[in-house]
Every structure is written in C-alpha cells, then in structure tokens.
C-alpha cells in the first residue's frame, strides 16, 4: 500500500487524494504516513504547495456539499398544491401508487445517507492528511509550512459543529487546532471559537482526565472571548459553569486549577462561579468542599481588581459570617471545610492578615451584642 501511495503522489495531487479517501484503515494510515513523509524529503516546495492547495480545494468542496446536504435534510417539505378531483380509482391502484411513493422516499433518504457518510469519510481522510502534514518530524525545516495547511484546518474548524456524528473527525480537527495554539502559529486565534466548546463538551461527557488536561492546556485561549456579550457567549458560559459542578474537574489537580482560572477571567463569570460554589455548601461532601476551598485560595492568590473584589466581598466575607452565625453545627462545619483552604495556608504571606480583616468586625459586633445583653440584666 505504501508503494501505491507513493506512485499516486508522483502522478498528481488529485489521484493521491482519491486514494486517501478510499483507504483509511489503520494499516493504510501507517502506510500513508510513511509514503507522505518519504516523498516530502525529495519533493520540491512547489509540489508540496500544490498538494496543500489541492487538499484545501477538495476539503472546501466536500464541506460545502456536506453542509448543503444537511440543509436539505433539515428543510421541511412544502405542502403540495391541492389536486384536482379525479374519477375515483380502484383501491388496488391507489395502494400501489402509495407504495411506490414510499419506496421513492426511502430510496432518496438512503441515497442522502450514503452520500452523507461518503462525504464524512472523505473529510476524515483529508483531516488526517492535513494532520500528517503539520506533525511532520521535520516541520521546523519547513517541509510542510503551517500556512500552506492553514486553509484546510480553518475550513474544517468553521464547520466543526456539523461533524458531531463523527467523533474521529471532530477529534482530529480539534487536535490540529490545539497544535496550532501550542505552537503559536499564525492564525491560531481563529481556530478556537468552535474547537474550545467542542473540547469542553467532550471533557464533560467523556469523563476522562486527558480531556481535562487538554482543556487546561488551552486555558489562555479563553481570554480571547468577549464575556460581556451575553448573547454570543451564552453557550460557552454554560459549559464553563458545568465544569464547576463536575466531579472530574473538582477532584483533579488540573481541573481545580482551571476553575481557579475561571474566577480571574471575568468579574461576572466569577460571580456566577462563586454562587455555584456557595450553593454546594449545605449538601456538599467534605472532600468536595475542601477542594472548593483550594480553588478559592488559588484564585485569590492571583486575582486582581474586579475578580479580587468579587472573591473578597461576594464570597469570603459571607463565608466568615456564615461560619460564625450559622443556624446549625452541620452548616457551620461545612462552611469551615470550605474556609480550610485558607486556614491551612495561613502561614503564607497575606493569608492570616486576610482572615483577621474578615473576622475582626464580625467578632467585635457579636461581642458587643453579648455585653449589652448582659448589662441590661443588671
């Protein structure tokens, strides 16, 4: 198979891409990688550029066809115009015509389904080929310049949400977007609008630590979103809020770091996250509350301006008051579990002073009230 790929590369990009579409088994992919990387060592820069251009064109055409096919499937059927009254036909003829219409509809649906699967298969092959180009072991020497492959990745990224039925394709495209971000290649900011929600959604549904790691590695990309635009950020914000109450995020180190990062991302988002954390106090497990305490402490250490104000006034002050004035021992104990993240770090610079500032006025008022009650009795 490797020789077949090699001959196709020598023949021309189009023949090679057709071969890539048809052969996507694991052994075929290994043969493709070997053939492509071997060919790239001797091929001219113009030949590589032509291959990337052909790949970009084929990807755009396949995405366009797939999108139109999806639109056709979602478009409701328009009601047919009223038919003129005709002479009543026999029931046998009527039943046969109805059966023929049903068969035609089934045939159309079957053709669309096969066409859809064929396009997804082609896109999967194109995405894998693009991935091989950008992960070339000699990419630093410019064997496949990222800017030549960028149009392919950008086209796939823009329609990433359409490929939800093909997990392998989504993973491949998301992986390339992550690579673009890690390598700081040109255009990386345009490859996060669809890939980040996809990564978040997968981490919340799959429940694997590796997915949390991938999200945390991309955390700085979230700073490029406009969190003041509620309409455009609503779906992403909902996913981020879900991270706060997902056990996998709360129990893993990188998950807790990511939630701490969210507290410094935007003041309104921080307010929402803190509200979620406070809502967990009455019925949260001790381990979960302690984890939230660590999250708050880490966020406080790096918080600035409005985010720091939210942590101090919207959360910490209320927690200290709750620990003192709690209506039950159980509730007070739960709040102290949350504050344990700060209490355990009281030897660190600024922590003891913070706890003192938060507790002093509350304790002073409480002691004053007790003294007045005692004095009025005498």
UniProtKB/TrEMBL annotation:
Residue ranges, compositional bias (Acidic residues): 98-107
InterPro entries listed in its UniProt record: Condensin2_G2 (IPR024741)
Cellular component GO terms held in the UniProt record: condensin complex; nucleus
GO BP term, example: mitotic sister chromatid segregation
Span list, region Disordered: 70-110
Membrane-crossing segments per the record: none
Biased composition (Basic residues): 82-92
One Pfam assignment: Condensin2nSMC
Alphabetical list of PANTHER family matching this protein: CONDENSIN-2 COMPLEX SUBUNIT G2
Protein name from the UniProt record: Uncharacterized protein
Organism: Taxus chinensis (Chinese yew)
């Amino acid at each position: 198979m490797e020789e077949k790929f090699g001959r196709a590369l020598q023949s021309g990009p189009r023949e090679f891409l057709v071969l890539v579409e048809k052969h996507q088994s694991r052994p075929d992919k290994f043969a493709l990688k070997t053939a492509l990387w071997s060919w790239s060592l001797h091929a001219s820069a113009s030949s590589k550029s032509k291959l990337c251009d052909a790949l970009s064109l084929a990807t755009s055409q396949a995405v366009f066809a797939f999108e139109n096919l999806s639109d056709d499937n979602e478009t409701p059927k328009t009601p047919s115009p009223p038919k003129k009254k005709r002479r009543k036909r026999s029931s046998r003829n009527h039943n046969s015509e109805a059966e023929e219409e049903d068969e035609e509809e089934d045939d159309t649906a079957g053709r669309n389904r096969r066409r859809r699967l064929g396009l997804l298969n082609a896109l999967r092959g194109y995405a894998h080929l693009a991935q091989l180009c950008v992960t070339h072991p000699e990419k630093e020497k410019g064997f496949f310049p990222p800017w030549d492959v960028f149009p392919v990745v950008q086209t796939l990224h823009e329609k990433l949400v359409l490929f939800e039925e093909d997990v392998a394709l989504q993973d491949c495209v998301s992986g390339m977007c992550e690579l673009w971000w890690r390598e700081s290649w040109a255009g990386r900011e345009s490859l996060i609008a669809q890939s980040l929600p996809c990564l978040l959604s997968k981490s919340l549904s799959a429940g694997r630590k590796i997915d949390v790691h991938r999200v945390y590695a991309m955390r700085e990309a979230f700073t490029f979103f406009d969190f003041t635009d509620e309409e455009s950020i609503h779906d992403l914000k909902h996913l981020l809020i879900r991270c706060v109450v997902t056990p996998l995020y709360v129990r893993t180190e990188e998950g807790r770091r990511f939630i701490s990062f969210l507290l410094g991302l935007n003041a309104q988002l921080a307010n929402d996250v803190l509200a979620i954390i406070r809502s967990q106090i009455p019925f949260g497990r001790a381990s979960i509350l302690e984890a939230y305490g660590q999250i708050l402490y880490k966020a406080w250490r790096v918080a600035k301006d409005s985010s720091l104000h939210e942590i101090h006034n919207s959360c910490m002050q209320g927690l200290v008051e709750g620990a003192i004035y709690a209506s039950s021992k159980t509730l007070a104990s739960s709040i102290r579990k949350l504050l344990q993240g700060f209490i355990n770090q009281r030897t660190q610079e600024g922590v003891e002073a913070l706890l003192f500032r938060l507790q002093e006025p509350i304790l002073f008022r409480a002691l004053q009230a007790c003294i007045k009650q005692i004095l009025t009795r005498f």
